[in-house]
Specification:
The structure is a homodimer of 364-residue chains. Chain A is of the alpha/beta class and 364 residues long. Chain A has two domains: 263 residues, Queuine tRNA-ribosyltransferase-like (TIM Barrel, Alpha-Beta Barrel), CATH 3.20.20.105; 98 residues, no CATH class. In chain A, 43% of the residues lie in helices and 19% in strands. Chain A contains 13 helices and 16 strands. In chain A, β12, α8 and β13 form a beta-alpha-beta unit. In chain A, α2 crosses α5, α7 packs parallel to α8 and α9 packs parallel to α12. The mean pLDDT of chain A is 97. At the A-B interface, α2, α3, α11 and α12 of A face α2, α3, α11 and α12 of B.
Chain lengths: 364, 364
């Protein structure tokens, strides 16, 4: 098996674990930064090492269109292409296929869409997602799922879920690379009963890990948690659980408390580019005029930015200097990576409840 | 005296020297990257250290308008503002004042111009340039000069030169900071006789160093050299000579051969952002389709980029990923810093002539 999950310690539902792969191991819970087009925006693999990132995401949608999965395959895969020795995970491309343009038609067999790069009409099936991701060559690939925009009528949510189930089975049947893990994705909207059905169905297909998709797409944290708990209740304890697209501190600590092991999100890097940094006292908008002569650092705890004053960062953001977005990106990623590192320690020390409470005081 | 020049070795006219300041020392010939608005675009002071940059330039025009010299002064000066412990030099602002917009009026007393940031009408005199740069607080400041766009009628070149001389004397009279050096600037277009007159005039004013301005502004390398040689012939041997705005390899090695000690240029960083890198085999345009599957590095000699393939860089440039511009910026700066380091060694070894010839084979 290309990927196994080892549970080290639990504190109530929170899990401190370790994922083992042919490449090495991943300490969980883990936050995985997103390198959409083969690079985390403003960073390169040397920065990933400095940040001690364990897993970098790649977006199949973008990479299969530019430079193309064949090109990346010819170069030796995503690791070689991006010069990154750590772990990689590719999403299935489904989320972008279905959200990045209006001319999308999903049928039982697959999805027809137009490329955002050149407007060409393209067809994509669960089997295509598997073979494309095999060419990209990440350590973990995701089965193609159908993710309806919420809120949606129940019938749409059910149809999307059932297609996701059928596509998951097809993905598993077509997946061949023995050195690459395949994760199935649980859907079902925010209805706990549907989430139970979906997780049970996926678990019976026996994947090496499970994504929980279609959450944090507009619903509140309070609406999200019952659906998440319902899904987790049906997933096997000896497999990693990955809550897709969730990156705000409150949701992360809640989800870790519920038993989630893996997270990814573009939020910290996107916020950074807009001048918002995550600090131990909450969000700070560096564009604010009050920082104009503030000699203090963004957050004295954060080694990625503590050389630089808020005054300097505010000036660079006002001037649209890319240096600002880069420093803020390093800052925010360090913040979230440190947050999950703190969560890991809290679970080890059986103090996850009080850790969660301390985070909620600021981010809840 | 805040700045002295020590001549270590000469090889014909080429000088291997060391500038001593209250901050430390600068090995010359030196290439000084430009941090226009307080940062070299895409980089920060940690990168300057990794590149072993000795002097970073700041543009007075941009900094006095945004965030303002008073703000930088309040924070403790440019070093504190940019978190940079190495040397800094500020230009006088004159070049940008006179080139960045059309509504410029130069008279004997100073220059009236409109801000590119908010269109406000502003007045700037040689005394203003001195006090503004004293507030910015770099180790070296430049006297305000008048730099006519070439080609220009001889009368215009002479009038600009004579104003520059009068402004240089006024700058020297108003300069007060004992911990900051003030350099005068030689003008005179491409006419060697005018350059002799200008350099002689400036030398008699006795500055701590001399800029040679108004060259490499459109004229060819062959046209530039007689004017440069004429200026250098009148400058004192015990002061550093700074050829302003020159950054292409051929001109740099020619100018070092003529006795220039200091260089700055935005060319390597601007080229980098457009996908062009300087290599030991010449310029390479990374956007070219032929690199699409090229696994080779940009230049195996360059430690700033050798982790990354041309295929990866081409892809990132096609996608306008800022990571590409950053890596190429580091690459090009390393190239030019290494070029002048090679020049220093060649002078020490009395082999500057053959070094120059080897560079000209590729860049001449």
């Amino acid at each position: 098996m290309p990927l196994t999950y080892e549970l080290l310690t639990a504190d109530s539902h929170a899990r401190r674990g370790r994922i083992h792969t042919e490449r090495g191991s991943i300490e969980t819970p883990v936050f995985m930064p997103v390198g959409t087009r083969g690079a985390v925006i403003h960073l390169d693999s040397r920065d990933y090492e400095n940040l001690e990132i364990e897993v970098v995401l790649g977006n199949t949608y973008h990479l299969m269109l530019r430079p193309g999965a064949e090109t990346i395959d010819a170069i030796g895969g995503l690791h070689e292409f991006t010069s990154w020795k750590g772990h990689m995970l590719t999403d299935s491309g489904g989320f972008q296929v279905m959200s990045l343009n209006d001319n999308v038609r999903v049928d039982d067999d697959g999805v027809t869409f137009t490329s955002i790069y050149d407007g060409s009409k393209l067809r994509f099936t669960p089997e295509d997602a598997v073979t494309t991701q095999e060419k990209l060559g990440a350590d973990i690939q995701m089965a193609l799922d159908v993710c309806p925009a919420l809120p949606a009528p129940e019938a749409d949510v059910i149809r999307a879920m059932e297609r996701t189930h059928s596509w998951a089975a097809r993905a598993k049947a077509s997946h061949q690379r023995a050195d690459q893990a395949l994760f199935g994705i649980v859907q079902g909207g925010i209805d706990p009963a549907l989430r139970v059905r979906s997780a049970e169905h996926l678990a019976n297909l026996d994947f090496e890990g499970y994504g929980i998709g279609g959450l944090s797409v507009g619903e509140s944290r309070v609406e999200m948690m019952p659906a998440l708990n319902a899904a987790l209740s049906q997933l096997p304890a000896n497999r990693p659980r990955y809550l897709m697209g969730v990156g705000d501190p409150a949701r992360i600590v809640d989800a870790i408390g519920a038993g989630v092991d893996m997270f990814d999100c573009v939020l910290p890097t996107r916020l950074a580019r807009h001048g918002t940094v995550l600090t131990s006292h909450g969000r700070v908008n560096l564009r604010n005029a009050k920082h104009a002569r503030d000699k203090g650092p963004l957050d004295p705890a954060n080694p990625m930015s503590r050389d630089f004053s808020r005054a300097y960062m505010r000036h660079l953001f006002q001037m649209k200097e890319p240096t600002a977005a880069r420093i803020a990106t390093l800052h925010n990623l360090w913040f979230l990576l440190d947050l999950v590192a703190q969560a890991r320690r809290a679970i080890e020390q059986q103090s996850y409840g009080s850790f969660r409470a301390s985070i909620m005081e600021i981010w809840g």
